[in-house]
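Sequence of Site-2 protease family protein (Promicromonospora kroppenstedtii).
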Amino acid sequence: MTTSEPASTPAPAPERSKGFVIGRVAGAPVIVTRSWFLAALVLTILFVPAIEARAPGLGGGVYLAAFVFVLLLFGSVFLHEVAHALVARARGQNVTELAVTLWGGHTAYTGGLGRPLDGFLVAVVGPVTNLVLAAGFGFAYQFASQASPVQNLPTVLLGLAAISNAFVGVFNLLPGLPLDGGQILESLVWAVTGKRSTGTIAAGWVGRVVAVGVLLWALVLPLVLGARPSLTNVLWSALIGAFLWAGAGAAITNGRRREAVAALSAAGLAVPALTVSLGATLAEALSARTAAVAGGMPDAAAHRLVVVGQGGVPVAVLDDDAVAAVPPAAQHTTQVDAVAVPFVRGSEVDPRMSGTDLLNHLAARSGGARLVPVVEQGRVTGVLDLADVARAVRGT
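Predicted 3D structure, token representation.
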């Protein structure tokens, strides 16, 4: 049972999980994925021996009893996710879905956690819900056991529900992403260091330790106790460990991406620009670049040539390939706008823009264009290539 928040980079709305929508909570759809049916079938079969041992004599009805328990278990998972969703919305997040899946469930939300306390509260409420349920089922089990010393089916189900909720609550508090305990650790490291990305990366690495520990628990603990490891337990631990390892790896990647986003700077990524007036010829534009080099600007040859209109408003940027295709004899008669790529109106960025502010601006204002002008106090200073921004975010 996990919560998930998309990386703080502009992107289309996350794709919704595929499955059956059975309702809405916190304004978001509740989805039962197709994989849940496989989980329900497998768990029903796995819990049959436990119920037979505690409530013998059910015959074929033991399968129905096991399925009822599985429904009870996933009901607890659902309440776990509801708690995540309600607290996330209360902390200003936009909850996009609650999904019941093969691995239990997850709650997805967007909005960007603003403070460590937000992440801590959203994460901790899920396991706490399961621990409260465990206490409630345990109390009911004790009451039912005292009322009737015979272990009937309802009493057995209450006892198993108490044990399973206690396990889910404690397991989810393990301090490694993608578990809720990992988000708690992330929030604590974030509070201490002031950097969420540091917390995410630290909790991701601890999550990998937890993933290995789950497998070692199934393999080593029985040997320490003088028993042979159970093949079933080893297989399940391997599956769970693989899931945790993948989630931890994704968290580490996400944390590094956050660091890369925080380091973004329009001034640092932009290519410097020289300006030419709208209506000038290509020969005049190239002469301006040559004059800049001769005037002591040795890197001017690499500057982009930006066409500006009245008042210095950036209109377009010369396309190097189109410029190279113009014969020298035609450069004196070819106007710059004929070999330039127009800017999207309103796409210009301030050189001081950085981080998520820069990305959000580009997502909202670039209009799908690859190049945008960098303008400082009404003067064009450079050209920003969105491909360079993407490479910086990916760390390549």
